[in-house]
Amino acid sequence: MVGVVTVQEGLRRAEEAGLDLVEISPNAEPPVCKILNYGKYKYEQQKKAAEARKKQKVIEIKEIKIRPTIEEHDYDVKLKAAKRFLEDEDKVKVTLRLRGREMAHVDLALQVLQRFKGDLAEIAKVEQEPKMEGKQAVMMLVPAKSSS
């Protein structure tokens, strides 16, 4: 802790020590500088940034595709996959595609999605309610313990 000195004085002291004069806080009044090894300082900053990146969880959107005429076992397999995705803290997009004459029975498609939503109610929140987008119905689920 030297106190307030001129830039020239700071550079002279850094040169005597064989180190660098590094501006730590440029927006402070007066700006805060330290005499240190700049290469080592940069390396430590990179390490801190890498550690912060490693600790954060990237939320992915996993997609489950189903059909309105899905059989019971196939439904259970898709449900199990959705549970696994939600437990891994990923969002799940459930897509139900209608083809041909199935478009006349949109209500049946929405019932399948409502059933899917009900079966996952204890571990998932609905981010986007089931709705028709052209020839497919889409619903977005997020983990219940997630705040998003």
Please state the average pLDDT score: 87
Radius of gyration: 29 Å
State the helical fraction: 25-40%
Instruction: Please outline the major beta sheet.
Output: 4 strands, mixed
Number of helices: 4
Shape: rod-shaped
Distance between the termini: 45 Å
- Strand fraction equals 25-35%
Which blocks of ≥5 consecutive residues have pLDDT under 50?
A: none
Number of DSSP E strands:
6
Q: Could you say which structural class the secondary elements and strand pairing correspond to?
A: alpha+beta
In the sheet with the most strands, the strands line up as: 3-4-6-5
SSE ordering? HEEHEHEHEE
What does this structure look like?
- The chain is an alpha+beta fold and 148 residues long.
- The protein is built from four helices and six strands, in the order αββαβαβαββ.
- The strands form two sheets. A four-stranded mixed β-sheet has the order 3-4-6-5, with helices on one face.
- β3, α3 and β4 form a beta-alpha-beta unit.
- The protein is rod-shaped.
- The two termini are 45 Å apart.
- The mean pLDDT is 87.
